[in-house]
Amino acid sequence: MASFRFIQWLMDWIENQTQFAFDWDFGNLTKNLKKHGITQSEAESVFNQIEAIRILGEQVSPKVSEPRYGILGLTDDLKPVFVCFTIRGTGIRVINIRKMNKKERKFYAELCKK
Question: Which residues does 84 contact at the CB level (< 8 Å), separation at least 6?
């Protein structure tokens, strides 16, 4: 399981976007649908609900070749999800999106109380 380090600039960046652009890799697009049952539009909808996003931060382990970031949030139909992504130029490339596990749901609830 990946570990993340909180970084404030990521929250600032997300909050200051007026519109998000997405850069989809076909392999990840089909993998997320097949493996996790989450569509491209559901994944993109998470970023439309900025008030529901809670930042985990930058992935620190396992080591990866480019910066990866993790967030917890909700789809338009209120499905609680974990999203791992990278930023390419001004676009977001979703690497993985899946339903939150029990531990993440509990952590998300605690973060939402703050």
Answer: 2, 59, 68, 69, 70, 94, 95, 96, 97
